[in-house]
Amino acid sequence: MADEEQTKKITKAPKDKTDYFFVDEAGDPTFFNRFGKNIVGTEGCSKILLLGFIKTEEPDTLRKEILELNNEVANDPYYSDIPSLQKTKICFHAKDDIPEIREKVYRKIASLNFKAEFFIARKLEKVFIGRHMGKENLFYDDLIAKLFENKLHKADKSTIYFATRGNKTRQKPLEDAIEKATLTFEKKWGIKINGQIKVLPQSPVGEPCLQIVDYMNWAVQRAFTKGEQRFYKLVEDKISYLVDIYDFDKYPKNYYSRKNPFDITKISPL
What we know:
Elements: H1 2-11, E1 15-27, E2 48-56, H2 59-74, H3 85-90, H4 99-110, E3 115-122, H5 125-132, H6 136-148, E4 155-163, H7 171-189, E5 196-202, H8 209-226, H9 230-235, E6 239-244, E7 255-256
Parallel strand pairs: 1-4, 3-6, 4-5
Antiparallel strand pairs: 1-2, 2-3, 6-7
Helix pairs in contact: 2-4, 6-7
């Protein structure tokens, strides 16, 4: 019965609407230093690579709310002598913002209308070599493909904003990863995705919604790497799906949703 219900959901015609996705990462895809030594978990090299998105049909509302909050913070004399305020004035960034501002942003985010999903990849050398041929870009793009595999059939238009770092956009590889996601979906369900899909690299400064996904990612990352779940708890009702993809000890309960809510007590130690 569950399979029949899922099939009915999948085979529904896409709605006449535009879904907007805003995508960012936390952690990094690095495994080895220049001497070929595995440095996962050492200073400057994360134990996980996390990719997440927020999805909304009303990005202008989210942009307006974030920009208004930023203006409020920037003009509050209470923060005027804090050195990091100069960065915060440019855009919110969870790692760099001071705790008082971080709390304001999380409480604002909790009031907004969007859904979030995440794929967390533990950095296992065996998987990296065997599945991704030891190539960081293949590791990253494989997660992107999984993140979007069952997401692009629900609307006749999908616009996907990726957060960029520096001047490197990687637009073509990202488009290829999205194409891989659509092909995997079509092969699985025998349904052609005919909707329009746009991939738009953008900076968090130029796209305020990317500041929201940065904060969402940070909450999930803190739960996994620090065992600190209070930020996650503030926004957990926004999160509809979270996959700890290489937590093989917990499979198949490493897929967290409304029916199996995520909690740090459920995961295997990193």
